[in-house]
Design brief:
By secondary structure, the protein is an alpha+beta fold. The protein is 57% helix and 13% strand. It folds into 3 domains: 60 residues, no CATH class; 141 residues, no CATH class; 169 residues, Butyryl-CoA Dehydrogenase, subunit A, domain 3, CATH 1.20.140.
Length: 414
């Protein structure tokens, strides 16, 4: 039987049904309506991705536990490590803040590489990686080694005026690990893996007369009707419940967004860091930290910290509120502008963790009780909680709701 040259695929952003070529070589199939990538032909095989993942796991112990940079304080060398920063936070009593740093800089990078290797192992032993593939797609945005790398540069600018700073040779392991992790993000293709491990779930031909359904988890387009014992319709491939009402989805987004907004209030009022120098204690809030960089003449660093700590969180919350209100009141605003705003929220959300990573590095270098000391302020926990909650809110906002309202408004205008 001759394989079909194309198949039907619903776009997971605008829900349009598109005919996609079965074979793509160094090409990308995009939705003609919203330009969302439906399939990429430039992704790597699972074997090559597993080699990259193994390299990451080999380098991670060096990247996480070996010194990134060091200072000489009264003749005593003090080293900063990723693990040491989170551990110092935890032992000083900031357990929840330490957990947030540890989750994004240690736990999730290790888990991401391990999941890729587990998928490779499951292929070798002939097992189906359903849960492994689901977890792989869920945790990618929580792997923040690239954000931590920028945090290293910001922390270096902060410390250089207090003590002599030098970068250790082991930072090369962290830089290489970060590059490999970003490369693995780009080159691994969960859509193709779902198709390779579950070939019996056939793709629909372009002339299929049915109105197909899209699974938002594994992005499988199908026309079967699979119902569980509770009467919920489920995806035949990954078994995701497809009967979650839009009202419930919106309630989840509203709940996380409102909670995240409330957390932003103490995050901007209370001090986020406390520095002691020769007995003089100074507490810095988010905005006062930016002002300090400006007074030191470090305008580039001040801009980075301002954008990541203040501009991005405020703009993210404002955009999410706008999109939710647009859905509720069915505003007739340009849909492509709304999609650009949603993409902006997805892209910049994780970069707000920059401040917490800088705090962890500073705590690793500057210990309490010395002439030069540093500790985390009350605002750190609230700031981290706000970042986490708004990231969850943006991840749960379904863009297809906006497109559905756009189509309804368009039909009403005709």
């Amino acid at each position: 039987m001759k394989p079909q040259s194309s198949y039907l695929q619903r776009c997971d952003e605008c829900n349009l049904t598109v005919s996609v070529p079965s074979e793509l070589v160094q090409q990308t199939a995009c939705c003609p309506n919203c330009d969302n990538v439906l399939r990429s032909g430039s992704r790597w095989s699972l074997r090559r991705c597993s080699i990259i993942a193994l390299s990451i796991l080999i380098l991670l112990p060096f990247a996480l536990t070996f010194p990134l940079m060091s200072i000489d304080l009264l003749g005593v060398p003090i080293h900063a490590t990723i693990w040491g920063g989170a551990w110092k936070m935890a032992t000083e009593g900031y357990h929840y803040t330490a957990f947030m740093v540890l989750l994004c800089s240690v736990i999730m990078p290790i888990a991401f590489a391990l999941l890729v290797l587990m998928i490779r192992l499951q292929r070798l032993i002939g097992r189906r990686p359903r849960f492994t593939l689901i977890f792989l797609t869920k945790i990618q945005e929580w792997v923040m080694l690239d954000v931590y790398l920028v945090a290293v540069a910001v922390a270096a600018f902060k410390i250089r005026d207090y003590a002599a700073l030098r970068f250790d040779i082991y930072i090369s392991a962290f830089i290489i690990t970060t590059i490999l992790t970003v490369l693995l993000f780009i080159k691994i293709d969960p859509k193709r893996l779902w198709q390779e491990f579950y070939p019996e779930y056939h793709s629909l031909s372009p002339d299929d007369p049915s109105n197909p359904t899209l699974c938002p988890t594994c992005e499988y387009t199908f026309d079967e009707k699979i119902v569980d014992l509770k009467g919920n319709r489920r995806c035949p491939r990954c078994e995701t419940n497809l009967n979650v009402p839009e009202s419930v989805k919106l309630q989840r987004v509203w709940a996380c967004l409102i909670a995240g907004t409330i957390m932003m209030i103490p995050a901007n009022i209370f001090p986020i860091s406390v520095t002691g120098l020769a007995g003089a204690i100074s507490a810095d809030s988010l905005i006062s930290g930016v002002i300090t960089f400006i007074s030191m003449g470090s305008y580039a660093v001040a801009a980075i910290v301002f954008i990541a700590s203040i501009a991005v969180p405020v703009s993210k919350v404002t955009i999410l509120f706008y999109l939710l209100l647009a859905i509720k009141f069915r505003w007739k605003h340009p849909i492509h502008l709304q999609m650009k705003l949603l993409h902006y929220v997805h892209f910049v959300g994780r970069w707000s963790m920059l401040d917490l990573f800088v705090l962890a590095l500073m705590m690793s270098l500057l210990e309490r009780g010395q002439i030069l000391s540093f500790s985390v302020g009350e605002a750190a926990f609230y700031f981290g909680a706000s970042v986490f909650l708004t990231m969850i809110a943006s991840a749960n906002l379904d863009s297809r709701m906006l497109w559905r309202i756009h189509r309804i408004n368009k039909r009403s205008d005709v």
